[in-house]
Design brief:
Layout: H1 3-12, H2 22-27, H3 38-42, E1 53-57, H4 64-75, E2 79-83, H5 87-90, H6 96-106, E3 112-116, H7 124-134, E4 140-144, H8 147-154, E5 162-166, H9 172-175, H10 184-201, H11 205-209, H12 213-232, H13 238-250, H14 258-265, H15 269-281, E6 285-288, E7 304-307, H16 310-317, H17 329-344, E8 350-355, E9 361-368, E10 371-377, H18 389-398, E11 402-406, E12 412-416, E13 419-424
Parallel strand pairs: 1-4, 1-5, 2-3, 3-4, 10-11, 11-13
Antiparallel strand pairs: 6-7, 8-9, 9-10, 12-13
Helix pairs in contact: 7-8, 10-16, 12-16, 13-16, 14-15
Length: 436
């Protein structure tokens, strides 16, 4: 093994020369305070599976590396950490047999492997596949910020050999876990404060924990444009990409007209589509399609676009005012609800919106197999239960398992026909998934 490579690996993995330091070394990579992620509990039985590679992907700075360190600390696994951003270390990650020979020289026994920012590897999929096929004795963990690149390299190579977890920024439930253990009055005060902050600044871990969240949100957007777009994805028109980001932020929840947007951004339709694909693949935005349930009155065609994180969206429009002070509060709350749905949606479920040719609309329809649930979002304070004609039309036509009306003031239950209707504040949105 090259002496410089050996020096880097021993520096990054001091436990190799002092095994008694393993537990301390694993724990020191966790921030204080550490906010547990829901996926840690949900996927706890699979993390120690040594027959698969464990891929954790998602947007930059969403906590992927921290999640893996937390898993390793809980499992107390002897692990070799490889920072794939370091060119010299990438040189030993070109062929699985040679890499494993280098590990035998370094540690002399089978240990877990942790490849951080693996999208920087030229052939990540083939390389990890080779490791899985040749060493089933210990788990392999892989993190990757740019899902577009990671999936292009790994989709076929790792079929049947990897378990993929997408990690988004903190959900409201994750940052409010401690509040649920407090007395009712203190719980409600803390939840109200968390809801407001989460809607305005979003849930990126560093943003959530720092005193000046606006500054970091600005840096995150600049990194997306200057590093990911211009450098990583080799976008020729970063000016058009910036314009698209701001346009998307202003048009959250509206129908996306590709031709119109391309004209505004001064690019052709194919270029605009490719830019939106990049934003989707890097987990910045998501397009959702209309719900089609077989009724003639449904309107097919243009999708809608939402941001995964409302903080990024607010930075792009330059507005961090409180919800009740916003002219766009309905649009903002609707976008935030989408982000929370996206983070919590069951595997195999999809999110749509419904719009009929007569103009009836429902904000979100979550479909999981044959089960569907409808969600309406109301930013205007509600004093009493009120169901729109559009929602009633949808209930009559499709008989969903439930209708949730997310609002800021009212908690009440009703039944319309045979459909349970729940008026709930934002922190109770997760209850919709019990019907799916």
């Amino acid at each position: 093994m090259d002496r410089d490579i050996q020096t880097i690996l021993l520096r990054d993995n001091p436990w190799i020369e002092a095994t008694s330091q393993l537990s301390t070394w694993l724990r020191e990579h966790l921030p204080s305070p550490y906010i547990p992620r829901h996926t840690e509990v949900e996927n706890s039985p699979i993390w120690s599976n040594a027959s698969k590679a464990h891929l954790v992907i998602g947007p930059r700075q969403s906590g992927k590396t921290t999640l893996i360190w937390s898993l390793l600390a809980s499992l107390q696994l002897p692990t070799v950490f490889i920072d794939c951003e370091i060119p010299l270390l990438r040189s030993i990650c070109q062929a699985a047999p040679l890499f494993l020979d280098a590990m035998d020289q370094l540690v002399g026994h089978s240990v877990a492997l942790f490849f951080d920012e693996a999208q920087h590897l030229e052939e990540a999929g083939i390389f990890v596949k080779g490791l899985v096929d040749r060493r089933p004795a210990a788990p392999i963990f892989v993190s990757g910020s740019a899902a577009f690149h990671m999936e292009a390299k790994t989709r076929e190579s790792l079929a049947g050999r990897a378990m993929r977890t997408t990690l988004y920024p903190f959900s409201l439930g994750e940052v409010s876990a401690e509040a649920s253990t407090k007395p009712p009055l203190l719980r409600d005060r803390e939840l109200s404060k968390n809801i407001e902050r989460h809607i305005i600044y979003g849930g990126y871990p560093e943003v959530w924990l720092m005193q000046n969240p606006k500054l970091l949100l600005t840096e995150l957007v600049e990194a997306l444009v200057s590093r990911d777009a211009s450098d990583f994805f080799k976008i020729a028109r970063p000016d058009a990409f910036r314009k698209l980001l701001r346009l998307a932020a202003l048009q959250v929840g509206n129908l996306v007209n590709i031709s119109e947007w391309a004209s505004i951004c001064a690019v052709n339709r194919d270029t605009l589509r490719s830019y939106i694909e990049i934003l989707e693949s890097t987990h910045v935005v998501q397009l959702i399609s209309p719900f089609v349930g077989g009724k003639r009155a449904e309107l097919k065609g243009h999708p809608k676009l939402y941001f995964i994180d409302s903080g990024i969206r607010n930075q792009l429009v330059g507005d961090f005012n409180l919800l009740d002070e916003r002219a766009d509060k309905g649009q903002l709350l609707e976008g935030w609800v989408f982000g929370e749905l996206r983070k919590a949606i069951p595997t195999g479920a999809t999110i749509h919106f419904w719009r009929s040719t007569s103009g009836a609309e429902v904000d979100f329809v979550v479909q999981h197999g044959k089960n569907i649930a409808a969600i309406e979002v109301k930013a205007t304070p509600l004093q009493r239960p009120k169901i729109t004609r559009s929602a009633r039309s949808f209930l009559t036509s499709y008989r969903p398992r439930c209708l949730y009306v997310i609002n800021t003031t009212l908690d009440k239950d009703e039944v319309i026909g045979s459909t349970p209707v729940h008026f709930r504040r934002p922190h109770e949105l997760g209850g919709v998934f019990s019907y799916l």
